[in-house]
Fold these 2 entries.
Entry 1:
Amino acid sequence: MIDDDPLARPHAGPGQREILEAAAIAFTRSGYAATTIDDIAREMGATKGRVYHYYRAKADVFLDVVISGMDEMIAGIQPIAADESLPVETRLWRMVHHHAGLMMTRNSFQRVAVQAVEMHRLREQPAQQKALDKVVAMRDQYEQLFADVIDEGRRGGVFREVDSRLATKPALGALNWISLWYDPQRGDYNTRQRVANEYADFIIGGLRRSPA
Amino acid sequence: MIDDDPLARPHAGPGQREILEAAAIAFTRSGYAATTIDDIAREMGATKGRVYHYYRAKADVFLDVVISGMDEMIAGIQPIAADESLPVETRLWRMVHHHAGLMMTRNSFQRVAVQAVEMHRLREQPAQQKALDKVVAMRDQYEQLFADVIDEGRRGGVFREVDSRLATKPALGALNWISLWYDPQRGDYNTRQRVANEYADFIIGGLRRSPA
DNA sequence: GTCTATATGTGGATAGAC
DNA sequence: GTCTATCCACATATAGAC
């Protein structure tokens, strides 16, 4: 959801939450297709029955993980994007920094969200297509948060003359890619800071108006 | 392969080539796990038998597609990276531009290669692990081509003081991401030029030494 | 070399005991 | 609400005809 409080999300019982955490880990480990419901159940020391009590199908579990991860991302970035008291450059820097941080600290959920984005172009089953369309819509809305800030910076002369919508692609691509190489087992707080800083500098630099 | 001529690759018969092209399309459409051998066969107007005559298992087909895509990438970038007659900044710009181009023109193969990179962290089956390790090794070697150029630019004062190895992550992440959103059906030559230029400017800008 | 069976294993989903 | 038992579809891989 985007327009209402994440905590008020219809499907958010306490039983679900445990399943979602387990599912995020399992999907991250093996990918959507290769993950079995048994894997998810085993991850939380239970059996299939428990999962199927809360969800009708594997795809539903998957989508709930994805929406959950995206909610978290949007909830974190939106306030920064909307903070008019900060200069655009600072605002974008912080958005990028925050996004990078979540890619590392909430690796499982974000990695699964990335999988979902991929799937939309490989249209898995027509059945799930409708639900995946929702995911794509959320992603588009998220991209727009970045595009708007980039546009503002461009108009203000801080950023280059770019097609803001196109410019979000390398920026968010670079960021989302983090979930593919970052190993949450190995990184500590300092490493994460270092990575997030480098990404923020990199992306701001990529958009900033050339000196010459 | 990296150290020898791609054309001399052991498994490169004419029968194989047709299978690889079909497999690349099929894997791109549905992902590794969801693609069936029947899908691949149907893609080239044949049946399972033909595929299994050349390959012992689905994983082998997949890996051959991946290696093939990576070979193509390395073969294109290496000469640019080695051309000492060009200033570092130009060299890197062209490497990025070329990489971006292949992501679009050879979308299927590159998209499959991206899938493989993902899989290494999600260690599918221990059986395939050994082969995937090779893929990871090739990717590391490829990253090093970029890291070396970045280091050279850093020492020369053109680029910022970055950890070159870390700096390849946002750069190649942004680039590889192209295969996930670019739709080869819709883009024409001009679009591809525009995208590749924007990516090259973006990445060079992200590494260039700040004006102030 | 390419095809049509077919053996075999696995995993999503359901039924029903507790 | 959580479990075990089971049905059933489907996909890998093989055997063997042509």
Note: Residues 36-38, 48, 52, 56-58 of chain B lie near DNA strand D (CB under 10 Å from a C1').
Entry 2:
Amino acid sequence: MEFNSTQAIYLQIADHLCDRIQLGQLAPEEKVPSVRELAVTLEVNPNTVMRSYEHLQQQEVIYTKRGMGYFVGPDAVKKITAMRREQFLQEELPAFFRRMYLLGIELDELKGRFEKFRQKQPKH
Amino acid sequence: MEFNSTQAIYLQIADHLCDRIQLGQLAPEEKVPSVRELAVTLEVNPNTVMRSYEHLQQQEVIYTKRGMGYFVGPDAVKKITAMRREQFLQEELPAFFRRMYLLGIELDELKGRFEKFRQKQPKH
Amino acid sequence: MEFNSTQAIYLQIADHLCDRIQLGQLAPEEKVPSVRELAVTLEVNPNTVMRSYEHLQQQEVIYTKRGMGYFVGPDAVKKITAMRREQFLQEELPAFFRRMYLLGIELDELKGRFEKFRQKQPKH
Amino acid sequence: MEFNSTQAIYLQIADHLCDRIQLGQLAPEEKVPSVRELAVTLEVNPNTVMRSYEHLQQQEVIYTKRGMGYFVGPDAVKKITAMRREQFLQEELPAFFRRMYLLGIELDELKGRFEKFRQKQPKH
DNA sequence: GTGGTCTAGACCACC
DNA sequence: GTGGTCTAGACCACA
């Protein structure tokens, strides 16, 4: 996984985990990788992974069982979708429209690109 | 002007100036507000405005005449548009599509919103 | 390190670091001193060192790993040499020749001095 | 005349006047252009030219006759040459050698360039 | 008046 | 520990 430099790594990791949950790759009540394991996989400091998990736990997306690790919360999908939908409509969409407006891009121009994008997505 | 806390203030100022240039509110070769003046207007430290200007100068959007102030560069609009277009297509658009995909939103659903957005924009 | 007053301190620091990289005292991918550390060594404000590093980063001579420090870029030597060679041929050399011409100095007169200079340079 | 941005304009003007004196284009006791006249010619602020003249007067390269203007001092050539020679040997030459050393350039490589440079100089 | 540099000190996020 | 941002205030050079 590659990280961009504009956003904190721990947030990018958390985001990626949310993606996987939303896509059903991580099911509710399923155990998520251990902090150490994921740290090795992603080649980052364990502290950084820990922060991601704490962040997700605080949003009740995952929860911890002592000595057993972190697990996907029962309503994780619903919670993530709700948060992201809110975020999308309130912040991302207006910013996106503004950019399009300043660049003189029409919504119709994006149709072809969106189709192409969707075809590249793996089935799940 | 209000600043959000996720992005550095000096970048938000720079971005806002780019907006104004792109909208034609600041014409090429026109003088931009002096560092001190803008600092008072925005209620920030002059150093912070200075950083914005240095950042824009480095992108050749504005240039400086000694003892006279900063001025909008001749190709400022072209440069800004090129940079933003690149950024939009390479980064913002894919991220946006991904969000839509994960939220199950179709492009057509956005049409109405986009029209409404556009009508709110001031003429220039 | 002593600073002359005609050039900004942060540029002199940047220049000095380039010297050290070009001489191989700082190898590619090696960590450069932390901002605070170098500030103490040089007896300047951390902000001033920071500016040097930002300046070098922008030229892709060094790069930053978050929370870990600044590191010499992989092509640092090549980049520095290219920039300096350009600067030398386009600006320094003509200015130098002009001075010699106006002072009536011949190139041959400098030979002895150059030899003497070179012998004083430390090996590396 | 074009000004580079690294050195103060008034110093570049003063330097240029010294060049002309050294080349004999301005003879001892000859009147130098009036502040206003030179300001128009160079398209700079009269204050800037004034500063150049004050700077040169302080070095006894030119002197002023009230109501008549500035004139080249009797020993101007000698003074300029002495100052420049000193400056050249103490500062420019070591810096120049250092640059050559770091760039791996030999003195002999410059011979051809120097000849070419000299042939382009106008006779005087 | 203008930009530009520097210091001192604070606070934050990240690893 | 690391970089990064911001404020406050000073001083200088330049036009």
Note: Residues 9-76 of chain A form a domain with the Arc Repressor Mutant, subunit A fold (CATH 1.10.10.10).
